[in-house]
Design goal:
Blueprint: H1 8-14, E1 19-24, H2 29-36, E2 42-46, H3 54-65, E3 70-75, H4 80-88, E4 93-96, H5 102-109, H6 134-140, E5 144-149, H7 152-156, H8 158-163, E6 169-172, H9 174-180, H10 190-205, E7 209-214, H11 219-227, E8 232-237, H12 238-245
Parallel strand pairs: 1-2, 1-8, 2-3, 3-4, 4-5, 5-6, 6-7, 7-8
Length: 256
């Protein structure tokens, strides 16, 4: 379980150290534990595109924490009530897809903080050892909150989003952003590169981390993103990693 006195992921981001994680698409605790044992700083249950529902999340969080990976969840929308439930289950951070408006994200963030800073409901749950450490958790824990920039409108709002005190990083979704720009998957297109730079600059101007998904599990590409200054990195997904490891099976003799 996360340390009730601090959030290690938030601390590492604040210190400017690269935080490398991955998406968990399958909802498998076995996958989560196996990936955590590889040394990832965080693992994110993908509740936007993945198959995981709220009843499966706790087991995945427990598995990730077993080897020191901070459990994170990605939401498909600004669902404050779902965020509350995930935080009660022990989430260290919440990533939200497709954010385009700073005011809307600020309102969402209120669900992630106890009063007087917000209106998160008080529950004696896993995050505070069912009440045993509630006061310590309430006083010391702050979630990592990350809006994803995946559209032209999101890029335009990047400066306002990065300026929010509740925001720890802005996270670029390369495929969605390139698609919204009219050239899906073309990461060399000038409009895409300009958009990425605009988001990175918004983060730099507000002392926030810039994040990005390195979709293909390629160590050289991951290092390149770190060298470019990205501090919050998703390195593939559990399912993509499995498929890549097994690629070429159809080339074997006797396979259809």
């Amino acid at each position: 379980m996360i340390d009730p006195f601090r959030n290690p992921l938030k601390t590492r981001l604040g210190e400017g150290q690269p935080c490398v994680g991955a998406w968990l698409s399958s909802g498998s605790p076995v996958n989560a534990e196996a990936m955590a044992s590889m040394g990832f700083h965080w693992l994110c249950v993908d509740m936007e595109h993945g198959s995981t529902d709220i009843s499966q999340v706790e087991a995945v969080f427990v598995a990730a924490e077993r080897h020191g990976a901070a459990p994170v969840a990605r939401l498909g929308s600004l669902d404050g009530h779902l965020a509350r439930r995930l935080l009660d289950l022990g989430a260290a951070g919440i990533i939200v897809a497709g954010v385009e408006d700073a005011s809307a994200f600020e309102a969402f963030a209120k669900h992630c903080f106890y009063g007087p800073d917000g209106h998160r409901g008080v529950g004696l749950s896993r995050c505070n050892k069912w009440g045993d450490t509630f006061e310590d958790y309430k006083a010391g824990f702050r979630p990592v909150l990350v809006p994803m920039i995946e559209t032209v409108a999101g890029v335009k709002a990047a400066g306002d989003l990065a300026a929010l005190k509740e925001v720890d990083a802005l996270f670029l979704g390369p495929y969605d952003l390139s698609s919204d720009l009219g050239a899906a998957g073309d990461f060399n297109a000038i409009p895409y590169k300009e958009s990425v730079e605009r988001v990175r600059q918004a983060c730099a101007d507000n002392a926030k981390a810039a994040g990005i998904h390195q979709v293909a599990p390629d160590k050289k590409e991951l290092q390149a993103r770190i060298d470019e200054g990205f501090g919050l990195l998703a390195y593939g997904t559990d399912v993509i990693a499995m498929r890549q490891a097994l690629s070429g099976i159809k080339e074997l003799k006797g396979m259809p």
